[in-house]
Specification:
globular, about 350 residues, seven-stranded mixed beta sheet, about 20% strand, alpha/beta, binds nicotinamide-adenine-dinucleotide, single chain
Length: about 350
Amino acid sequence: MPLLPSDSAFVPFVSVQQMMDLVNHIGVEKVLTELAAEIEADFRRWESFDKVPRLASHSEMGVIELMPTSDGEMYGFKYVNGHPKNTAEGLQTVSAFGLLADVDTGYPRLLSEMTLLTALRTAATSALAAQHLAPAGARTMAMIGNGAQSEFQCLAFKAICGIDTVRLYDINPRATEKCARNLRRSGLNVATCRSGEESMEGAEIITTCTADKQYATILTDNMVGSGVHINAIGGDCPGKTELHRDILLRAEIFVEYPPQTRIEGEIQQLDDTHPVTELWRVIAGQAQGRKNAKQITLFDSVGFAIEDFAALRYVLTAIRGTGFYTKLDMLADPDDPRDLFGMLARAAT
Ligand SMILES: NC(=O)c1ccc[n+]([C@@H]2O[C@H](COP(=O)([O-])OP(=O)(O)OC[C@H]3O[C@@H](n4cnc5c(N)ncnc54)[C@H](O)[C@@H]3O)[C@@H](O)[C@H]2O)c1
C-alpha cells in the first residue's frame, strides 16, 4: 500500500481566478504600490542576481520567451509570449506563467499564472521609473495604445506618481472606449482623443503601449516637446519599435538590462555604443535620474526577469495563510528517494 505523498510533493499553484481574487481582495492600487516596492528592493540589490538576456524564439506571428534569474536563494523563470495578431482571433497578445524554486533543493515553491501579474509588474515598474524620471509635479499622462496593459499603467501612475488625468488614444476607437469605461470609477479624469497628438496636449508623461510586429512610428520627433518623460512599453522585440530614431537622439535614455534592451528595445535603432543609464543605478543612488526641467527622459522598457522574480516572491508571501491557491501534486515523492520505479510499479497494483 503506497504511502501518501509528503508535503514536499505539493506545489502551491495560483490560477487566473485565484490571482483575480487575491488582487481584488488586496485592491489593485495597493498591489501595484506593494509590487513597486518589491521591485525597487530587488533593483537596489541588482548585483546579487544572475542576469541573462531572455531566450526568445521568434516566428512570423510572434515570439515565445523564457526569462530566468536567481538571487542565490531562489530561482525563478517566466514563460511569456507576444503575438500582436492574437486579439483579432479573440486571444491575448501577451500571456504568461512562472515558477519560483529553492536553489538549495531545486524544488519548486510556487507555480503561478503571470498574464495578470505581468500587466501588474510592468505597470509598477513603469511608475517606479517615472518617480525618478518624470518632471516634478506631473499630473497628466497620454496613454497611447489602449489594450490589455493600459488600465494597469494608468492606475499605477495614479497610485505611485500622483497622476490625476489620463488622455487616451488608440487606432482602434473601441479599445479607447473600453479603457475609458474600465477607468470610469478609478478617480482619474479620463479624456478620449482622436489622435496621438491630441492625447499629448498638456501631458508631462507619454506612455506608448501599442502592439505591432514591425517597426512602427507611434511618436515622431515633432510631437515631443522638451521636458516630457516617455514611458515606452510596446517596443520589446527585434524589429518592433514605437519611437522615431530622432527622439532617441534628443532623450536621456534609461533601460533595465542593456544586453537585452540593445537587442529588443527602442535603442536597437542606435549603435551599440550609444550611452544609456541602467535604471537600477538611479534607484540605488549611483546615477542621476532627471537632471533638469527641459530634459526629455525615456524609459525604454522591455521587461526584465528580476521584475518577474520580485512579483512571484510578492505572490508567494501574499498567499500565505489564504485560500488563494491550490496545492498541485507536481513532484514525484517516492518513500525511498532512489525508488522512483518502485513507486510507479506499486501504483499499478
Ligand atoms: N515592456 C514590458 O515589460 C511589456 C510588458 C507587457 C507587454 N508589453 C508590450 O506592450 C504592448 C501592448 O501589450 P498589450 O497586452 O496591451 O497588447 P494589446 O494587443 O492588448 O493592445 C495593444 C493596443 O495597441 C493598439 N495599437 C496598435 N498600433 C497602434 C498605433 N499605431 N497607434 C495607437 N494604437 C495602436 C491596438 O489597437 C491595441 O488596442 C505589446 O507590444 C507587448 O509586447 C511590454
